[in-house]
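Bench notes, afternoon.
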Amino acid sequence: MNPSNQLRFAVNDRINDAEIKPSHVPLALLGEFQKDVSEFLKGSSQDVDPNKDLVSIEEGSLALVATGLLSAVTLWTDLEHLKSTDSLNLIDSKRASVIERWQLVAQKNPYRRYSVADQSTQHQTSVKLKMLGSM
């Protein structure tokens, strides 16, 4: 995967019969999602510094778009691995933990879905896909 400068992290869900969006999201979900995105970006090697890299909050569910990621080599390597079936054992352990948490939550909630998309290629990895482990 050629490194891009940004990734889009999104969580889709329904709360009180309405889709979540930046103007309608429980504070706890916002906090958990922000923490998970930060942990995923940093990974074990911490090649992304969440104090320096910026995010924007976008419409379309709840989406955080992280920028300034060109030098995050292990991040892009891990995203390339996630294109393969049963790839969690190939990626950074902290990133794998985030994906596993997302899988558990998505399995329990029929409306919950997480995704990570490379903004330059529009390649998207969704936690609902079987390629990310035991579903």
